[in-house]
Amino acid sequence: MYVNMHVLCIMTHVFASVKVSDQKPLGSWSVKQTQAISCPAIYNSQTKEYVVVHDKKVLRIWKDEDVNLEKVFKATLLADVCRIHMLPDTEPLVLFEGGAVRRLDVLLTDPQQEIEDIVSEGEVIRWSDSVLEAGSPIVVFITEKNGAFHLYTQKLNPDMQQKFKLDSGEEIGCPVSFALSLNQEDIILTCLYSDGSIYKTELPPRRRSCVENEQALPRSSLLKLPGCKARSLQRAAIRLLDEAHIAVLGAPHSLQPTVKESLSIWNTTFQTLLTWKELPEGSCGQLWCYSGKLYVPHGKVLTVVPFTCETSSLAAVLGKLQQPNTAEMKTAFTVVNWNALLYDEEAEGLQQAAARSGAKLEPKRILRSRKSQGASTQQQSISQDQLLNQIQTGTLEKVEEDLHIFFNNLQSPNTQLITAQITTKLVHRCLEEVKFYPQKALVQLLQTQVLSYSLCPDLVAVALSKADYFLLQLCLQQFPDIPEAVTCACLKLFLSVSDSDLQDVTLDFGDVACYIDIENQSPQHTETPEVVQNGFSPGLLENSCDLPLPPVKSHQPPAFDVNSKCPVSLQKAALLNEILLSSYSETFLLPHLKDLSAPQVMLFLQYMKYLYVKYSETVNTELPGERVPTVNQVLDWISLLLDAHFTLLVMTPEARGLLTHLHKFVRSQVKFYSELSKIEGSIQGLHQVKPLSYDSRYSIEVIKLF
């Protein structure tokens, strides 16, 4: 299932939460090998908890910070659970295999309570869903027994049950997939049968319980899929997109025998196919729809398909839908009295007619001027198709000009899809024509803040080939789903470029200048008293480790100095900060970090050491600014870099002194915080000391800590 663009992946023994935009797991939990997850998990947004059932009767509830499922809340129920349903702003509903429904909070008050059976013996629940009707949750499920299908509705508060019979037989086959929707106050059930027929059924009002007397539900034909024979569909799924559009998965969209399974979208009003996508690897018969996107798992891949539904009309089906021009002016006409002209009426009447005619000519001239103004305004706008054609053949200046005009007049809810399509066209032309590179246009597209790496993966590759540092900085700032290999490619480029090449490059420095000093030190230093900042001083370094320091030549600065300057320029520091702020997975990042050369590793390590020293100079270990890497991020990158190049650094003479001093500095920090922890209890005890009564005279109070 999906939760706010987070997909919950359930396997036999493993449960994982994956963020779709980043394509990275947020967390994973597993049960024992002897246990098996028996129904889909849910996420309760009210309590921020996950709920899952394994072995049909064991209920587990936990939060994101929980690691081991064996240590989270556990409840063993008396009856087997079929599924847990979640509706917005309501308590989760637990559907048992016997047909009973309980609220989760009521069930947790007494997990060993008796659960009644509603369905008959041998009747198996094949599908279930839930919907809100007038604020009250209703659970709808369909059962099968000996080829006969029945539909049950369970309404809570007040408790009400109904049972209906679904049609099935040799002519139409058996129902394969179902979709539940709410049309105002009516609950609509859409059924896909094994012969490719899709029927719509409106459930009767729920006024009283009726389980004993079975009622046959009337149905109406909605769509007939081509290429389907009797009982040819065994595994398929449908989802209603709106009142006139439906998505079908796992069924052929045409009579072509080569296409076995596909995802297709149909217009049910005009019985037409709008679009389709072939699935050569097949599907598992699961299809989800959420927030304008279709989620299709097939094989080991989860495909996310954005969609938009136009207004259902014949013009839209024929592809000739035009937006009405509401600003169109109406022409004023002058009405002439022809009787007065033909029969020589009095001159006064003619003069009045002429006067009326002349009075109406002036607005007519005004309307012509307005029409010309509207035409000139229309010439300044450009459509999406015109812009895409201009991108393919136009000059660089013309493309950038038309792109600026297009986005100034863009007013569409599909801004993300339109921007991604335009960016893809631009990038493809950049790959085909080496001399074509619209840097301003690409920057403008990135500044819309609607793009991601998955929408236009070749954009970063083009920026790397052109060594466009500003464009790469924007991509790192706005793309949360950049793969680790691309991140390391950007890091190699940033570390290899010289500071002189970056002097004239336009970059977003942010607040880097607030904490980085890149000016050269003066050759003469005045001796200043030693100041201990956040537990660090050179004296602590001398006594914190017994490792011998390599001799330092007189003409070289000390290998480790709190007053040392930043080893990189301001421009390169801004770029390296974007690398430190990027998201990554250690498993995928480590192999690519090993591609860095020894000088690049040394420079990156020196810069991170400089940042770490800067953090130690502040009381709260924070640096000013918004887009600034935290001390934890710096330490994580230092650990990763050491893990990837430890052997190389140990064998490099230039790195030995750096590693030794970095090791001593970390030990001095550990020693300082360990000393602070010793007096933590005493300092906390000061809050419990009752204040003494003081007189008006001056007094000194001595508090003994040890």
UniProtKB/TrEMBL annotation:
GO CC entries: nucleolus
Signal peptide: 1-16
Domain Nucleolar protein 11 C-terminal: 386-706
Superkingdom of this protein's organism: Eukaryota
Keyword Transcription in annotation: yes
Molecular functions (GO terms): RNA binding
Residues of the Nucleolar protein 11 N-terminal domain: 13-307
Localization per Swiss-Prot or TrEMBL: Nucleus, Nucleolus
Matching InterPro entries: NOL11, Nol11_C, NOL11_N
Entry keyword set: Activator, Nucleus, rRNA processing, Signal, Transcription, Transcription regulation
Record protein name field: Nucleolar protein 11
Organism this protein belongs to: Callorhinchus milii
